Amino acid sequence: MTVLDLLDELEDIMDTASNVPLTGKVMVDKEEIMELVNDIRRSLPDDMKQAKWLKDEQNRILDDAKSEYKKLIVEAKKQADFLVDDNDITLKAKKRAERITQEAEDYSRELKMRTYDYLDRMLYDMQGKMDQLNNTYFVEMYNSLENTFNGIDSVLEKNRDELKQMASRTQNGEEWMYDSKSQDGDDDKE
Q1: How far apart are CA 10 and CA 51, in angstroms?
Q2: Coiled coil located at which positions (predicted)?
Q3: 51 pLDDT higher than 70
Q4: Which residues, listed in sequence order, are joined to residue 25 by a DSSP beta bridge?
Q5: How many Cα atoms sit within 13 Å of 187 on the Cβ side?
Q6: 80 closest CA partner among 67, 66, 99
Q7: pLDDT tens-digit profile of 148-179?
Q8: Would you tell me which of 3, 39, 76, 154 could form a disulfide with 97, CB atoms 3.0–4.6 Å apart?
Q9: In the chain, pLDDT over 90 holds for what percent of residues?
Q10: pLDDT exceeds 60 at position 36
Q11: Helix, strand and coil percent figures for the chain, each rounded to 5
Q12: What pLDDT shows up at residue 189?
């Protein structure tokens, strides 16, 4: 069953549930509703799992970049120590070490920026999917529930108006019948 089918079933349960008098509420079977909620959860896409995977992937990529950076630094220091014996060689080694260090830092920064860009695109896509899910499932369900509650409110308002009319007629000592056809037709005949 799709999530929409399950939501339709939930709406049917609400529509056919017994009304609690004078409250605007209905009585439903808790187990049946909980079973439907669990079915809806199982039917939702794996977007939540994908978001966790993205976070784990980001951490892994950043750890790899740090590890690569540290390896390059260690290699540069080893080469510099080896070349320290001669002053000219030492100067060249320092320059090379600085260049390698700068390249490593640049590479690390570039890798981080690519990672951030990749994760931003993934999160943006996830945002779009979540908006789509919200619009597809929850906005429709909210509108349906709002219409149902408005209908119930209208019926209750009508019932209150009828009670006020009956009370007014009783207070005025009028003869009246509950049926609205009798009220309109009998008043004209008497």
Answers
A1: 28
A2: 48-110
A3: no
A4: 20
A5: 10
A6: 99
A7: 989 999 999 999 999 888 888 888 888 766 55
A8: 76
A9: 9
A10: yes
A11: 85, 5, 10
A12: 44
Q: Name residues whose C-beta falls within 8 Å of residue 78's C-beta, 6 or more positions apart in sequence.
A: none
> Do residues 51 and 126 make contact, with C-beta atoms less than 8 angstroms apart?
yes
93 with 80: CB under 8 angstroms?
yes
Q: Of residues 152 and 3, which shows the higher confidence score?
A: 152
**Comparing C-alpha atoms, which of 170, 167, 55, 75 is closest to residue 118?**
55
Residue 47 predicted with pLDDT over 60: no
Separation of alpha carbons 135 and 167, rounded Å: 47
Q: How far apart are CA 176 and CA 4, in angstroms?
A: 49
Strand 18-20, strand 25-27: pairing: antiparallel
Report DSSP letters for 103-114, one per residue.
HHHHHHHHHHHH
Q: What is the pLDDT of residue 135?
A: 79
Q: Which residue has the tokens 């640049």?
A: 106
62 contacts: CB under 8 Å, gap ≥ 6: 112, 115
Q: Which of 70, 1, 74 is nearest to 40 (CA)?
A: 1
